[in-house]
Each structure stands twice: as C-alpha cells, then as structure tokens.
Description:
single chain, alpha+beta, Rossmann fold, five-stranded antiparallel β-sheet, 13 helices, disordered N terminus
Amino acid sequence: xxxxxxxxxxxxxxxxxxxxxxxxxxxxxxxxxxxxxxxxxxxxxxxxxxxxxxxxxxxxxxxxxxxxxxxxxxxxxxxxxxxxxxxxxxxxxxxxxxxxxxxxxxxxxxxxxxxxxxxxxxxxxxxxxxxxxxxxxxxxxxxxxxxxxxxxxxxxxxxxxxxxxxxxxxxxxxxxxxxxxxxxxxxxxxxxxxxxxxxxxxxxxxxxxxxxxxxxxxxxxxxxxxxxxxxxxxxxxxxxxxxxxxxxxxxxxxxxxxxxxxxxxxxxxxxxxxxxxxxxxxxxxxxxxxxxxxxxxxxxxxxxxxxxxxxxxxxxxxxxxxxxxxxxxxxxxxxxxxxxxxxxxxxxxxxxxxxxxxxxxxxxxxxxxxxxxxxxxxxxxxxxxxxxxxxxxxxxxxxxxxxxxxxxxxxxxxxxxxxxxxxxxxxxxxxxxxxxxxxxxxxxxxxxxxxxxxxxxxxxxxxxxxxxxxxxxxxxxxxxxxxxxxxxxxxxxxxxxxxxxxxxxxxxxxxxxxxxxxxxxxxxxxxxxxxxxxxxxxxxxxxxxxxxxxxxxxxxxxxxxxxxxxxxxxxxxxxxxxxxxxxxxxxxxxxxxxxxxxxxxxxxxxxxxxxxxxxxxxxxxxxxxxxxxxxxxxxxxxxxxxxxxxxxxxxxxxxxxxxxxxxxxxxxxxxxxxxxxxxxxxxxxxxxxxxxxxxxxxxx
Length: 700
C-alpha cells in the first residue's frame, strides 16, 4: 500500500467531459474518551455495535468460495482421529483430554501404558464436559485438572464459563468419576489453588475487598483445611496490591516436600519464601531469577541477569544450583549446570526420578540434554534426535526416569517417542499422518538486518520451485514479547489452507521474544520497544528484497502482544503490507493498565501514567497514531467478548476510530472463547476460515 492523501472532498469541476465527481468521504474526529463506552464488555449498546460489525464481516467473508471450502476442511482436520492423543501418566494410568465432533467441549479419559502403545487404545472416560455443561446449563470450557500425589485419585477441576481466565473449581474423585460432595470448591474467579496434602490446599481467590491485586489476581494466600468453610482458612501471606499475583504450592524431591509462597512482584520479578515450621524464610536470590527445578534436595535457578554471590559471578541466562538448606542459610556455593551463549538459550527444565531434562534452543533449533549426577557432579548427554524441528519433553514424574518426547517441524507431522531413562533409546509410540501435501515445499532460515545492525532470524516455508517475482502471497507471523519463543511446528490448518495452495509462510524471531534468552527479550523492553518493530519491518523488507513477495502480496498476523505488534506495524509502515490479521490485541496503550489484567504488563511496556514513559509509548500506541490522511491496508481485527485477559475494547475502539476516520476494516468478535478466541473446534474452524477468506481476498 502507498501512503497518499485521501480525497475528502468531491471534485467540483470535471476535468474531462463525462467524468463523475469523487464522492465525499465522511470523516468524524472524536476525542479518545468518546470511545470508552465500548469498554462496557456486555453493555447493550456495545454488543449491538459488535453484532453489526460481525454481520458486515460475515456478509463479505463467508460468501467466498475460500471460506466455504475452508470451514469444512478445517473442521475435519480439527476433529480428525488421526491426531496424536497426548497423555500424561499419573499412577498406573495415562490421562488425556480429547475433543472431536462428538465431544465438542471434550472428555477427560485414561488408559494403561500397555494399551496406549497399541494403534487403537481402549479409553475409559472419567469426565464428560459436554454432558456436564448440559446438566449444569453452562457453556463450560475445560481448563485443567490438578491431581493429588501420589495416588492421583483426588483432583481439582477447573471449568471456565465460555473460555474466560476466571474459573470455577470443584474437587473430583477419579475412582468414583464424580464430584466430591462437600469437597474443595471455589466460585468463579481468577483463583490459584494447589494441593498441600490430602486434607488441605493452598488457595488464593477473591476473598472480598482488598484480596486481589491491581492486575486482578489473588493477593492473599491461605491454607484451607478440608471440612471447614473457606472463610476460616488461615492466611499465610498477603502481597502488595501492585504485585501481579501471590500463590502457594508444594515442591517435592524424593521424600522431601517443601511448601513455597511465591509473590510475583512484577511480571519479571518475585519474592520467594519457604514455609519452615510456620515461619516464612525468603530465598536470598535475585528478584528476577526463576526457580527451574528441585531435585536431590538441590534447587536449580535460572538467572535473567548476571549475579555475583559469595565471591562467584554467574552469567545472564545460566542455570545454577545448590542445596536448598545452604541457600536458606545464605552460605550456598553455587555451581553452573548450563550456561547460555550468543546462540544458545535454555527453554525449559523437567525432572524425572533422578535426571534433569534441559531443552535448549541453538539458533532457534531444539536440543534436549539429559543431566545425571555422578560423583557429585551433573553431567549431560544429548538425546539423539533430529534438531531441525521443535522438541518438547513431557510425561515426566518422580517415580521413573523414562519420559515422552515429541518432535515436529513445519513440514513433518508430530512424532511421539518414549525415551528409556537408562539407555536413552527412543521408541516411537505415535506418528501423526500428513494432513497436507508437503512434497514440493521447503523450509529455509534467513537472517534480516535490523535498523541498528542486529541480525534477526526468520523461517520461510515455500514451494521448492518458487518463482521469485515478488508476486507470491506471503503471510508473516510475529509476536516479539514476554520472552516467548516462536519455534517450528506442524500446522495442518495452515498447510491445507495456505501452503498447499501456494502461499508462503514466514515465522519471525524478533527481539522481545526468548529465542536467544533473556538478553533477546530485554533488548525490546519498555523504551526499547521499537526494536521489536524495527526487526519486524526489516524482515518484511528482506522478503521484498529477495523478491519472495511485494507489499501488494504481503500480509501479517499476530495475537495478544502480537496484536500490538500488528497495530504498530500497519500504523508505522502501512506501505509494507496489504493484509493485517490483528487478533485479541492491545492497542490503546494509554489505558491498557486500567483494563482487566493490563496492570501486570507494566514491566513489559512501562507505566503510561508516568509522563516520561507516556512520552515514549505514545510514539507507537496504535490507537493514538491513527489519522485520516494515511492509506492503511484493510485490517481484519478479531477478539472475544469472553476475553478477560486482554480487554475486547482495545479492538473495538480501534475499529470504531478507524471507521470514523474514513477507513474500511473488518471486525469479528466471538461471544465465547476467552483469550484463545474460540471455545471449541467448530468456533476455531469458523474463525480460521474467516481469516483465510480475508487473506486470499487481499493478497492473491
């Protein structure tokens, strides 16, 4: 798209005989505060406006052949029985949550390891969420189940009405397949609850005025004993209102159990306490360090900043360890388990009975290292598997050194392995069938040069014989925030609706993410936010320079923080793109801390109530950088009424303002779905199909 003045008045004189005058474009200038009525999530006027916007989008996008074909194919893919049923072992059973055309809200089920290794395991249904929703007259969305070690028969089930982050909690008896009468139960709230033992839990919830943080999460942690009213639970901790959240939990290592209080003082800082005979003892560790694992009575800590302690200096991004008892006494002599480098970052750490499984990214390619202790030292061996895709470790527990490992890439469907904890041998358990034709596709990793000279990687998936003529429909995806890493993964929906039909897909690894550890994330924090946007623009320009695509055929997509990236992208450089899919976005950066969970993100973006910070934020806040004279691409905004994390008013107000300024946009707000945007497979299929209908309309 080219930046040019919009014609706002009709021509009064015909230049050539028979020419018609250009119709006047109506432009309405309003104060930003005049859009705040759209912040009333379920207000009648706001929902009437939403329904009108939805009808316009549906009329245009659902009528296309692309939509009609996509919605059928996508729903078939989402409901396919060829998907891998990922399962986690608790006790003697492996448990899985499954959705399909007959179980739209899902069933929680189990089988034995012997059965799981067969082609068609026999599953036993434990909880039918569709049946429960019908019985309760609620649109339940399953949000997880926390079961009590070591027997795992008692569980705390989380259910959300419509997909919100706020949940109802009920205690469930696995053996009886029934909710426990008089058991632990919490009303709808953004609660935190975890088992302490069979008869008590740590609980944080809305206890009344003053019990929640400014971010809308629990500020108070209590111990709640079975058979007693919640009102009598014993308070053990209360955070400041300015904290993000406080919680309590137990961590185990062999026969040792340690009760922990965690106060997230910001998104990237915390105070951690151990409860010792009723006393809270704070761990003397850096406020931005994170607890990664507890094994053999040693605590493993990931550093986000360099740290000098007891005469030793440890580098940013390293994982260090010491006995917990020594840490509590303040005389720990830490050792380095693994250090990061310019190319290598630590993604996650999982524990088995006696080993640590460390997943790392090396230039955004996954590896798994298995650490075992011998003669007082931790030594590592790599798990022998292809490193060209993404590797994830799961189904680890305290009773075995065996574990599951999943491998996937852009063009290779997921393969699930069981890894022998002693020999390291991999045994294939499941392999997903190919869902689209990838024989003529190739994956490349390129590097773009950002404005400040930083090299920024991205992946390109395209035809092997692609014609480099600048005309290829190309979708560039980005996030760039909260230390989230974007890694290769197989998407049947993307493959069938985009790649198979000739589209090019680009996955960007811009600063703000975690692909190269804390330094990569911190490089785009607060007053360096523009670095992420410059990286994204550099990749777009690199695609154009390589003649993979051109502005008329380049679309971009992102959600949540990635939605903010989209808003900044098309307001900063509207000339680069012809399609923008902006999902569940932040856009009004002046008021984001006042809307739902927004206060918790001040550590990422800065506090707009501080004048010096707002002076910077307003340079990129999408809502505040709109004007009537810029030719923007026709943006497609999506959000959810039930999103209680990122307020739907961000998208609502942006759309209303753009329309008032004379710009044409699409808007779709799903009435369910929460921050995920959809509550079940049918809703997902419809949402994805609207997006692909839009993309092919704009970019083909």
